[in-house]
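Predict structure. Input: Cytidine deaminase, 122 residues.
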Amino acid sequence: MADGPVAEGELEAEDEKLVVLARAARARTGAAEGAAVRDTDGRTYAASTVDLPSFGISALQAAVAAAVSSGAESLEAAAVVTEDALVTGASVQAVRDLAPSVRIFRADPSGSVREVLREVRP
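Output follows.
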């Protein structure tokens, strides 16, 4: 399930921090996307799209991989900054593999949250 745009000031401070980190990761590398996740211990992990000749992963997949490789067992929230109108299914699934019900914030490059993806219940 997805919600519409989030009004300014509606994000909690820790969720806003994820958007800021995702924007910074994207800007730092000039990548198509930047993402950040927060684990259940409050640690954050940021990453950008990886597009190499030998392999490629989305920013959200990279952020989840960084969290998992650092010992995270679950996530509290995730954010992705992209110009795309949708977060790819593989990116969403990477988050859902670790935390089925967390919110995923999709923000545009300015940092405005355009969508909040929530768990889809059968």
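Strands lie at 2-3, 33-39, 44-48, 50-51, 56-57, 75-82, 103-107, 113-117.
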